[in-house]
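In this supplementary section we document a worked example of the pipeline. Step one takes a protein sequence of length 317 as its only input; no multiple sequence alignment statistics are reported here. Step two produces a three-dimensional model, which step three serialises into C-alpha cells for compact storage. The input and output of this example are shown verbatim.
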Amino acid sequence: MKRILVTGSVGQIGSELTMALRNKYGNDNVVAGVNKTMPTGELKDSGPFEIVNCTEIEAVNNVVKKYEIDTIYHLAALLSAVAENNPRLAWEVNVNALVKVLEIAREHRCAVFTPSSIGAFGPTTPPDNTPQDTLQRPTTMYGVTKVSGELLCDYYYYKFRVDTRGLRYPGIISYVTPPGGGTTDYAVHIFYEAIKNKQYTCFLKEGTKLDMMYMPDALDAAINLMEADPGKLIHRNAFNVTAMSFAPEAIEAEVKKLIPGFTMDYRVDPLRQSIADSWPNHMDDSVARQEWGWQPVYDLPAMCADMIEKLTIKLKL
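The serialised model returned by step three reads:
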C-alpha cells in the first residue's frame, strides 16, 4: 500500500486530491502537508496532517521519515497572478522548494508528482493545438518557474532515476475550494456570482479562449498518471491535459441556460489579461491519451450543470 505525502494540501487542488487519495489508499496512508493555513472539517479529521514548510528541507525530510513516505504529490506553489506580484517569493516556493523535495525523493526513493501549467507556454508558442513538445518562452515569473520545474523533474529522472511525473494543467474549476489567485479564476467566480446575484463582472475580455478542466477530471488525471505503467511512458513530466476550451462569453451562455436572468459585463484586469494573452487557446493532449489513456469525462455543459447544482447546495441558496 502506498504511503503518500501531499504538500499544499489545503489549496484548491490539494484539498480535494488529498481526500481522493485517502478514499483510494486509506485515510492513514495519506498525510496532508500544511504550512500557514490549517486544515478544517473532513480534511483535518479524516487522516494525519503535519506542518511542512517546503522551503525547509528538514521539515519535509522529517515527515517523509516519520511516515515512511514513498510517494509525494508536491502541490505547494504560488499561482500566476500572485507570483507576478511577488516574483522572488514565487521562485523560492515554486523552484527552490521543488529542488528540496526532489533531493529528499532521491535519498528516500520516493515517486514525485509535480503539476506544471498552461502557464509554462508563452506568446511565441503555437496558440492552437499546442503540441506536447514545442517552444516554451513564458513571459511571467509563474511560467518561468513552471518550465524550470518541468526541466528539474526530467533531470532528476534521467540523472538519478527518481520516478517523477507531472501534468500541464489548464484552468481548474471547482465548487469545493475558492480560487487562489489564478488567471483562469473567472471561470469559478462566475458561478458564485450567478447563484448569489445573477450578475458577474469578468476580469478577462471577450474572446479570451483558454483551456479548462473540471476538478473531478483533474484529480483522476493526477492519480491515473501516477498509477500508469512506467514502461509505456515515453514522456515523464508535463503532459498536456485538457477537457474543454472556451472564452468568457461561452461559459456565460451556458450559465444563462441554467440561471435565467443572469447577466455578465466586463472590467478587464490588465495584469491577468496580459497573462492570459500569453497562453495558448487550446493544448493538444493526444500524447497523454496515447501513453497512459487520458480521457476527460466533463465537457462545458456537463461541468456547468454540476457546478451550479453542487454550489447551490453548498451556499444554501
